[in-house]
Amino acid sequence: MRADRLVSLVLLLRQRGRLTADTLARELEVSTRTVLRDIEALSAAGVPVYAERGRHGGFALLPGFRTELTGLNHDEALALLTAGSRRGEQVFGLGSALASAMRKVVDALPEGHRATTSDAAERFLVEPETDLLSRRPVTETVPDTAMIEIRRAVLAGHRLRILYAATDQTPQWRTVDPIGLVTVRDRGYLLATRSGADRTYRLSRVSAAEELPEPAQRPDRVDLDRAWQERCARFLSGGHIAVLIRVNPERREDLLSSALAVRAAEPDADGWLRLEVTFQDLRHAEWALWQLSTDAEALAPGSLRLLLRDRAAAMATRYEDSPRQSVDSP
User: Among the ranges 96-110, 131-145, 266-280, which has the highest mean pLDDT value?
Assistant: First the structure.
């Protein structure tokens, strides 16, 4: 790990010039004291890094210095492959490896292309923290140590122990045979088997994990996309409720954030969307539709329409008259 960090430090100085210790610490996700120790180690190894004091000071490399330490390690290559397909670097714990790998990719480019690429990168912003409605995305987190163990077990084909908290239950240790990792709408899942039965675990509910030395009981090759579709089909047939809904397109994401799944979607005649959405039960569906107010309409089942109608009538009755005066009112 330290060797990779030293390489990343050199590449940061090469690509961005003079940087303060605080800036380097933020980029490398370490303490300032660690950065200072790394600077000393680089100087002792003959890397021409020097300090400039003063208000605009920092650390820099002597002009013209170049290093051949740009080879990608395993995690960095994996981060590029994963991030290239989706936003997997966030859910699979590969964000730091991706940042390090991209620095090495940029450094490996010819001098003329390097500046052009850096300028172009400044013109793209992918998935900022808030959207136009100032809503912050819900990002699920997994402890780094747990994610590393999970990822190693999946790739090595080893059994895995996870401390997992199922819904409304206390965390319990479980030994599983991992098959693969899936990310859907920024939610990560571990596909595995337990005692030969298929299991799907939400990564955000894993608080600790341990890779075991014995091999996992699983096929050598797997069609992960097909396995995920099959598990989704079984999940949706497991006693949940399907609801037909009309929704304002501007509130579509709000609806999907509370639903379990969407089976079908098509435009309606008035520009709204008609969706078949799955919820846990009738109470869950009533709650989700109520949050959308008049921006959504439940078309079926009729029992849900009745619940929403009665709730709206009760609310209208509550606010029909002027507010009652409190005993302390003048």
Answer: 266-280
pLDDT at 3 over 70: no
The DSSP result for 107-151, as a single string, is HHS-HHHHHHHHHHHTT---S-SS-TT-PPP------HHHHHHHH
Beta bridge pairs of residue 162: 174, 209
Structural contact between residues 48 and 61, judged by C-beta atoms closer than 8 angstroms: yes
Q: How far apart are CA 163 and CA 146, in angstroms?
A: 9
Question: What is the Cα 182 distance to its own chain's centre?
Answer: 11
- Token digits for 111? 């001098």
Could you report the per-residue pLDDT of 34-46, keeping only the tens digit for each? 888 888 888 876 7
Give CB contacts under 8 A, 24+ apart, made by 121-129.
126/87, 127/87
How many other C-beta atoms lie within 10 A of the C-beta of residue 41?
15
Contact 216, 165 (CB under 8 A): no
Q: What is the pLDDT of residue 89?
A: 44
Number of other residues whose CB lies within 10 A of the CB of residue 273: 17
The b-or-e profile of 65-98 (16+ CB within 10 A means b, else e) is: eeeeebebbebbebbbebbeeeebbbbbbbbbbb
Determine the straight-line distance between the first and last CA of the chain, rounded to whole angstroms: 70
pTM for the structure as a whole: 0.48
Q: What crossing angle do the helices spanning 2-16 and 21-28 adopt, rounded to 10°? A: 130
- The label of the residue with tokens 């981060």 reads 79
Q: Is the dihedral of CA 287, 289, 294, 300 positive or negative?
A: negative
Contacts of 16 (CB under 8 A, 6+ apart): none
